[in-house]
Amino acid sequence: EVQVVESGGGLAQPGGSLRLSCAASGFTFSSATMTWVRQAPGKGLEWVARISSGRGVTSYADFAKGRFTISRDNAKNTLFLQMDSLRIEDTAVYYCAKGSDVPPRDDARGQGTQVTVSL
Q: What local confidence, expressed as pLDDT, does residue 7 receive?
């Protein structure tokens, strides 16, 4: 059974930083493409970033380029999202998911972690 558990969300000021983590279990993490998506209040799921298995090739949504960094630690079965230069519009629930589907299947993503960017 795929299990992913996000953590690290919280309150940040504009221009600040947060680092999200996603602990994975129930599948071969090192062989899986992993994805971060987010859902802002009143909006649908939005793709944020993706990292491949193997060489860890990354790709980002335009709004995330230059501010967010996705990475993985295969030894610890953990996915990360470093978020810098946060903006108020980054406020959302952030989910990690196994695979590259957007939106991800419900059974491939976790419960999410809330990120609030506010003065």
A: 98
